[in-house]
Design a protein that fits this description.
Rossmann fold, 10 strands, binds NADP nicotinamide-adenine-dinucleotide phosphate
Length: 208
């Protein structure tokens, strides 16, 4: 699978690119700046360039730019992305005096994204941290993926299943991204409270 990682210069994108590279995926990392994307790609031993350049020919686009830039970035790249499936990994969280909170009351970022572009959208991997992805260990975690369109959900489940030691689980429609994105606030809170790198693991699910 040919995977284009938008914002592949960031902590999450670089860790994802390195892990997928080691698994034999064909990877490209992108940046707002062609040169920066090219340099990060060269460091990682994958292709690199501008966000717009790297979506060309991709089977799956991972939208891994900073969360508050995710929708605008996708809108700007709407034509370049076309109908290539997109996996959204973003969560909106608020850091407040009373704690780390989900930033959205209603629609998720992924649902807003799906309305902004033509491409089918899946959402997931919010609970898989960049630090864990960058480790050499097989992650003792499940990965939850939701989406309304199998053209995005299926490649996203396939990719997620290779990243973790647990299962890549179909978490239903894209609206369930509201829960996945909000869970990031819970995980970050737990990480802070217990100095942890928490991931998710669901119990009681029979083998396929
Ligand atoms: N970090 C984690 O552990 C983790 C875990 C799960 C999911 N995620 C999600 O993964 C995504 C990336 O997280 P991250 O921690 O890697 O973020 P990050 O390092 O803050 O940002 C990633 C990349 O976004 C690009 N960017 C920054 N501001 C931008 C803007 N205004 N417009 C367009 N692009 C911009 C930058 O690339 P250029 O400057 O090269 O363009 C940057 O390298 C987020 O949506 C986050 O919610 C993160």
């Amino acid at each position: 699978m040919n995977v284009a990682i938008l914002g592949g210069t960031g902590a999450f994108g670089r860790a994802l690119a390195a892990r997928l590279r080691d698994l034999g995926f064909d990877i490209a990392v992108g940046s707002r700046d062609h040169q920066r994307g090219w340099e990060r790609g060269a460091e990682l031993g994958v292709r690199g360039g501008s966000n717009e350049e790297i979506v060309e020919g991709a089977d799956l686009v991972v939208l891994a730019v900073k969360s508050n830039a995710a929708i605008d970035t996708a809108r700007e790249l709407k034509r370049a992305i076309g109908t290539t499936p997109v996996l959204c990994v973003a969560s909106d969280v608020l850091f407040t005096d009373s704690g780390i909170l989900p930033a959205r009351d209603e629609r998720s970022l992924a649902e807003e994204l799906a309305e902004a572009i033509e491409a089918p959208v899946a959402s997931g991997l919010q609970s898989v941290s960049a630090i864990d992805l960058a480790s050499k260990e097989l992650l003792d975690q499940d990965a939850l993926i939701c989406g309304d369109d199998p053209r995005a959900k299926e490649p996203a489940l396939e990719l997620a299943g290779k990243l973790i030691g647990g299962r890549a689980l179909d978490a239903g429609p894209l609206a369930n991204s509201r829960a996945l994105e909000a869970m990031t606030a819970v995980i970050l809170t737990v990480n802070k409270r217990y100095r942890a790198h928490a991931g998710l693991r669901l119990t009681g699910i029979p083998d396929k």
